[in-house]
Hints:
Elements: H1 19-32, H2 34-42, H3 61-70, H4 76-92, H5 108-130, H6 133-149, H7 171-188, H8 194-212, H9 217-220, H10 225-241, H11 244-252, H12 261-268, H13 280-300, H14 309-323, E1 325-326, E2 329-330, H15 345-358, H16 361-370, H17 377-387, E3 399-402, E4 411-416, E5 424-429, E6 443-448, E7 451-454, H18 476-481, E8 491-492, H19 502-505, E9 511-518, E10 521-528, E11 535-546, E12 551-562, E13 566-574, E14 577-581, E15 586-587, E16 604-611, E17 621-627, E18 633-639, E19 649-657, E20 670-678, E21 681-690, E22 692-694, E23 699-701, E24 707-715, E25 718-725, E26 730-736, E27 747-752, E28 755-760, E29 763-769, H20 772-780
Antiparallel strand pairs: 1-2, 3-4, 4-5, 5-6, 6-7, 8-13, 9-10, 10-11, 11-12, 12-21, 13-20, 14-17, 15-16, 16-19, 17-18, 18-21, 19-20, 22-23, 24-25, 25-26, 26-29, 27-28
Amino acid sequence: MNNIKLATGHPIPSYIFTSAFYRLAMSITRRIGSIALRVLIAYTVSFSATAAQHPNLVINQQDVADMKQAIAQPGAFQEAFNATLARVDQGLTQAIEVPVPQDAGGGYTHEKHKSNYQQMYDTGIIYQLTGDKKYAQYVKHMLLQYAKLYPTLPLHPKRKSSNEGKLFWQGLNEAVWLVHTIQAYDFIYDALTPAERNSIEMGAIMPVALFLSEQSPKTFNKVHNHGTWATAAVGMTGYVLDKPLWVERALYDLNLAKKGGFMRQLDELFSPDGYYNEGPYYQRYALMPFVTFAKAIEQNEPQRKIFEYRNGILLKAITSSVELSYNKLLFPLNDAINSKGIDTIELVHGIAIAYGLNHDPRLLDIAQQQNNILLTGDGLKIAQGLDNQLQQPYPFVSSLYRDGQQGDNGALVVMRQGGKTDQTLVFKATAQGLGHGHFDKLTWQFYDKGNEIVSDYGAARFLNIEAKFGGGYLPENNSWAKQTIAHNTLVVDEQSHFNGKLNMANKHHPQLKFYESQPNLTIASASIDTAYEDVAFKRTLALVNIKQRDAVIGIDIMHVKANKPHQYDLPVHYQGQLIDTNFQRKASLNQLQALGQHHGYQHLWLLATANLTTHSMLNRLAKITWLNNNGRFYTLSTLVNANSSQHNDEQMLFTQLGANDPNMNLRQQQAFIHRVNATNHTFINVIEPHGEYNPSKEYTLGATSNVAELNHYQQAELAALTIRFTDGQQYLLAMNHSNNVVTEQTQSVITVNGAQYPFKGRAQLIGPLASAQAIQSKNSK
């Protein structure tokens, strides 16, 4: 249809196409061809269409009837209604203000337009539930003010060049405004006169939709969360204004070529497991337009079966968003603000819509934690489920989330032991994640007792705090947060992965070697050989529950191979106060220096150093202990000179973030870095939670590590790590790294110090063994 022009030679304005006109036009095109159609349209000014029933987006008339009945009955839904009613009534006492845009994110005008669309949405739904015309009048008056303002607006004075806006500094916020505002307009549609509708549509609704689509084609057709918001806004507007061409464009791109649009986003942005390639933070943010537009599609065109598309990808995206969290907070991967959690409004909508479709009682557990009942038909179902105590515990278990459209671009592995606040290890072996990705291949994080223990910085940004760089990403997001040294993974020669080049990073991803989960053991291994020109590294991480000791430990084994010597740095960014090391440190007492000059090293103060090769540590074990504010101690035990035949030069560096930061934008965080100069090297680490510190009751228990000795053995594609504790108990983790198919029944045997240890599958924890002395005695015989 986009190629069809009026007899005057001008393109057909897309706003002409009402539903009835669109169907007739397509029919005529098939029968008499496009030439005759041009003649027809040339004399067509308007075409009367059968009006759609309103509301027709996220809620419908049956939902309204059910909700009206529910607000008359005591329960969670009535409470939510009363709370919203009180908030809306308070808003009605305030003068309507639609200011000329001036401020970036966090500034007054920015926040005012955000609160306006939320106020219109809430007031509109209250009108639907009460029928009181004063609520419709309020929304109408605000929309009429927007209809006067918007046509006069130039591009925003503080616009972002990558995605310009008018009401807001970026078009993304403009799309969010329309997603909410079109629903508010839908709520009050039947309370308006034709003249009022015409003024609002021609002055505000349609100009915003056209600005987001025809005037911003690059963003609208982009497979990215900005594109998702734009297509959702325009598609939902198409349903309300009865413009199916807009819906089709939203689904299949401006040219209907299927090179962009909502369906292409569903295809490319999610893996088959529902993992979003920009990470959980942006998965949460993008979820709102995905599920809201999908709900509108389901209401208006159920024959599309949108929630069944790609084997139910949207429902998987909702549940995986929940599962990519710890103690209610999302894992802060890539450009993430680590205060966002499962109670964000986007996930509230997602959980409600998912429960409305499948009535899974486990989703009610999440809804109960969110403590936010929506005034929608799905929100009513959530409220009724909670009132009837139908909720069941949501299972937070070890899981693998493949990355990439086909699930072959690496994976995110979440290893859990116990409940939702017990030990969790996150292994990030995913693809780059587009512009919001970080150069952090094969990084990891560790959580315990409700807290982040081995941490990820996330994004360098103070969201919506205008005094901090306008509330946007700080310059340090590029100079620090994205750089490899800001993460818990290998850095070669003080250069970030892919030399910090995004285009190169987007072309490559790790290879997942294997993943296996057992009741007492979860293990995964991945590798990459493209992050550096001549360096390949493979990392194997495991979370082990030693039930006989009532202990859960994390195991980290990284093999590095190269063609020539390099400097290898393996940092651990920890949360807490350093308590002790079993080796001496040489501290910088009077003057600090930055650790390096580029790739994030310029932001690290060097606090202390230790030459590990000169220390006579017991059993070649370097131990660092810190205390987290959860009252628990953590020790990372590192095997020094793991490659005993090479005797590599090894150091431990202690750093603090904040160098070369004149505006004090960076948070003060600490790390220690295991530095090795070698050609090939194997890093062996064990993280061990232990003890308790209670400052209120003034007691300390178990402040010292129980790990006494580590040994690593390699036998072709088989490997083993032995762990001896201070009481003499010893365990062995046997692993099969074969590239062949290995099932749970695959039998392997590894020999350690002359003793043979059979095991099944990819890995098995064996023990407790006899004491080390007994093994040596047995082997000598």
